[in-house]
Request: fold
Amino acid sequence: MANTATDIACFDEAELAGVTGGRLLELARWHPHEHAHTAAKEIRMALDRRGPEASRSYALDWIGLAECHFLVGDVTGAVGNTHHAVDAAAHTQSGGVRNQLAQLY
Reply:
């Protein structure tokens, strides 16, 4: 059973922004011009607040941000963010991060 007090304490502004950005990214996959910009804004907020020490979440944020750029046709921005994602992924052993990178590829 999860420790609810610890789980809630870890749910800060960065986590809220990351989760919100992730859900908006899901919507952007169907309606990119309606949701990708807002998703990217939330994900950037998460990146600014959480930093590389949150290795798994940090890598997933970069992957999501790259996808936002791809969805609206910004290949240059997508490539730059993908490079950041690959660099961040090198600091985690997360299978989820590897799977997300593979889907981005």
